[in-house]
Write a structure and sequence with these properties.
Blueprint: E1 3-6, H1 20-25, E2 31-34, H2 61-69, E3 74-77, H3 83-94, E4 100-102, H4 107-116, E5 123-126, E6 129-132, H5 134-144, H6 155-182, H7 190-194, H8 198-218, H9 225-242, H10 256-269, H11 274-279, H12 282-294
Parallel strand pairs: 3-4
Antiparallel strand pairs: 1-2, 3-5, 5-6
Bound molecules: glutathione.
Glutathione binds next to helix 3 and helix 5.
Amino acid sequence: MNAQTLHPSSPSSSASSAGPAAVAAAAEHSSTIDAEFGFIRDPARRQLAPLAFGLRADSPPAVAWRAAQQRERLSFWDFPSSPFCVKVRAMLRHKGLVFEAVDPLAPAHWWTLQRRGLGKVPALQIDARFVTDSTDIALALEALYPEPALVPADARLAALNHALEEWADEALYFLGLHFLWLDPATAGLVPQLFGRGPLGRLGYQIYRRRIAAQVRGQGTGRKPPERLLGELQRQLDHAAALLQPGPWLIDEQPRLADFALFGQLSFLLRAVTSGPLVRERPPLMAFVKRLRAVGRDASATPR
Ligand SMILES: N[C@@H](CCC(=O)N[C@@H](CS)C(=O)NCC(=O)O)C(=O)O
């Protein structure tokens, strides 16, 4: 197997200052990142090795350096197509963290999610601590691994960051749920995710009913479909305008709001009606491409 050896600098150096020279300077702390799976092979951190696959061989040295300094074990309850999981996955990768992805549908993991979590994905276990909700996960990560920062230091920008995150997580998400689950144009596609057998069909019916109740309860589902289409177009125009001149929503680097918008745009791109509306807005597609690069292809959206 192809492997790449990395030489992290001393633990007191800042991650952002770990250029190639600093990285090469501390050969005594060397650890190996497997080129294919991103395992860390440093014997001192062996407990992470078998399961971690948050990094790829093309991770920049500073990212790999941060991962090599990571002491906590991160297990991520990750459902690939969830927009909130796309958001968290991209943030984990942006921060250069190594994590184990856990299948939330496996019975034992599903039960953990009900018992210790909110019954929803994403969830992140940080050593023994179980954190739920993508915003709380982001803030927990930020406290442990402050660089690169998801929240700007400036109070006004920080408030704007949270307001735009909320807009993406709440307003865009319910439109996404409608277009992916309830819009008749997508009806043939979603059941394929569940499998064509009787159990898959039953699972799809039950879950669809649950989604319909959520979308109706929140209010979006009470509006006629034409109105939702107009609303989506308006929201996407706002998103495109917010990204001018870009490259990010509010700052010189991607922040929490950018990851939230990325998750929702990835979700909308999957649906028959909403996908073309995102694709026909160049600032949105340029943004999605930029975040796919930052998040090392963290989106589950097919290209
Ligand atoms: N506000 C939450 C939303 C999480 C959420 O709604 N997750 C959905 C998947 S996209 C879920 O787990 N739904 C299952 C359910 O509601 O039972 C966050 O930011 O994490």
